[in-house]
């Protein structure tokens, strides 16, 4: 019984980590809200281009729905606009 429980936990952990594969320099990609079309992010290393796809809703009004790439960071940092 314990062996089966350990196997299930390992499988679930593997599925959870597979949902957050790195995309280029980004650690995570995720949908915000509940968009009708689930989004995805990809990175083309040859052209150094990121692509996002997904569906959503205008983020300026009552609800937010979109897909994005992000990193978790802590401490002091500077954001640069290029």
Word description of this protein:
There is one protein chain. The chain is α+β, with helices and mostly antiparallel strands. It has a domain at about 20-70. About 20% of the residues lie in helices and about 25% in strands. It contains one helix and four strands; from the N terminus they run H-E-E-E-E. The chain has one helix spanning about 1-20, and strands spanning about 30, 40-45, 50-55, 65-70. The strands form two sheets. A two-stranded antiparallel sheet has the order 1-4. Strand 2 and strand 3 form a beta hairpin. The longest helix is centred in the N-terminal third of the chain and has 17 residues, at about 1-20. The chain is globular and about 30 Å long. It starts with a helix and ends in a 12-residue tail after the last strand. The model is unreliable at about 15-20 (pLDDT under 50).
């Amino acid at each position: 019984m314990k062996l089966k429980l350990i196997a299930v936990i390992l499988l679930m952990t593997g599925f959870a980590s597979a949902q957050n594969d790195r995309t280029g320099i980004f650690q995570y990609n995720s949908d915000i809200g509940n968009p009708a079309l689930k989004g995805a992010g990809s990175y083309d290393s040859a052209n150094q281009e990121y692509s996002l796809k997904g569906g959503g809703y205008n983020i300026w009004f009552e609800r937010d729905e979109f897909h994005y790439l992000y990193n978790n960071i802590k401490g002091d940092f500077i954001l640069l606009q290029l």
